[in-house]
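ok so for the tutorial part 2 we go from a plain amino acid sequence to predicted structure tokens. step 1 is just haveing the sequence, like this:
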Amino acid sequence: MGHFNIAVDGPAGAGKSTIARMVAKKLGFVYVDTGAMYRTMALHFIRLGIGPGDEEAIARACRDVDVTICYEDGAQQVMLNGENVSGLIRTEEVGSMASATSVYAPVRKKLVELQQELAKKADVIMDGRDIGTCVLPDAPAKIYLTASVEVRAGRRFKELAEKGVECSLKEIEEDIRERDYRDMNREHSPLKQAEDAVMLDSSAMTIDQVVDAIIRIACERGLEVGA
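step 2 — the prediction. this is what the tokens look like for a chain of 227 residues:
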């Protein structure tokens, strides 16, 4: 029996990672945090002193790097060439470097290879923009998770307000629209629904309802729970 993979794609702010983590926990799957992998690559480039615009040096640095995810005591650990860097990748500097370098084809190609390796070794759930279309095209269960711009902006607004960050709902909405446009129109691996993906609009659903819906879809696609 091969490993069962679940691919979750969708626009920014649809709650993909929160939901994918919960599904992974319920099913005992490995949650592959693709964003953390891009951040780890960014840390690698920063340590090598490479600037975000130096595509040649970035392409060279991609050749001999290993990024993997493992779990210790139920917590995700991200490894860079065997070193646990989980505590080092959440800085603003790493985040902006990840954003700048994730557009380069060599970075995407290398991470797709590493993500495919992970999916061969374990039952995984992976979320991103191009998982069902590019990374795991053969995944039996593919979900395209979305929500209206208004709902996604409202959730983000609430999140920031709870942290005490002053923000404008209108600006967040505009920002999400722009990001959708960028993601859907970029040259490499644009965001689009895979032909065999199930569309889930979470606008009027609770997180638990979305989690249950994804597990139900996985079971319909052949996952045996508790087998």
